[in-house]
Amino acid sequence: MFASLTIYTLLALNICATTAFPQYQSLAGLTREELDAVVPTLQYQPPQPPPGPLADDSTKLINDAAHPHLPLKPGDIRGPCPALNTLASHGYLPRNGIVTPVQIINAVQEALNLDNTFARFLVFSTFLVNGNPITNLMSLGGATPLTGPNPPKPATVGGLNTHNNCEGDTSMTRADAFFGNNHDFDESRFQHFVDFSNKYGAGKYNLTVATELRNFLHQDSLTRNPQFSLVSPRLFTAYGESVFPINFFIDGRQKDGQLDLTVARGFFQLMQLPPDFHRHDGSISNEGFLTVYNKYPIQPGGNAKGVNTYKVDHSSPTLFTPCQRYTDFVNKNIKALYPNPTGLLRKSINTNLQFLYEATLSDNCTQVFPYGRDY
Prior knowledge:
mainly alpha, Chloroperoxidase, three-stranded antiparallel β-sheet, 12 helices
């Protein structure tokens, strides 16, 4: 069915430009004719409740006959997340790269054994920024009409390529956005991954390598990227991506925490599971990040006036203030994108915010209601 949105509902998607989200702009300057052309094309799909944990989270074969790796077809979309790219190329997610939140949660649990609470937090915090709340669709890469007709430019639904959320500076295999392409595999970045694994891990990627490489990547961006930024939520995902390959790219029958570099390249570049790959034995989330953080602790911040001018941002949540991270994300990031939504747009955002909050319950955070409590 098509949503019976009013002109005022579209105007409510008055997405303001911010430092972290420069591509989101106001729709207030659009003509009545432009808005009238958009209203009939927005197909509303209500948000779906997230699935619960797996009934059986033991290890099992994942690279099976039902999920063969297939080459990309013209128009298939991939982006900065190697895990989601790989799951799409094996059919655990739609192969065209256009996904719903529930599809992602199901896929990362079934194929990788990602902890349910952790999966819900990652997915809904990502979707609220990068997805289309009206159609309930998100791109694994850049903006595309496949997520539903978007409001006319300059507004956009940016997908996972959106800078400083899932994607961000200091990536292990993608370049900083300042240098251009922030979403495709970068061989020179991966060579750092290889070199550090050879130097510190005897040819394997492990927590020792992750620690040294994370420090190097921080210093590299600090000294080369004048617009370097590492604040919440990217600070959280940067440390998460350091340990993610150890937790999820190693066969579940292997217990030594040593990631083979050929397997790593398969995920990062080729978007392909190793032959006979089994998922992790038991659900897992962000294990190991404290090891990576403790040797070279990094405070949130960024270069203030060109390279080598790192300034700590004391207003940003740290890795150890989860409730501030949740509150700031809702009151600052989401409110900046959707300052005054109404109608179905408001209903969809509120529902997704509820799903996000439910993933923070173990942290005993106080729920915030930027658009009121009604749905």
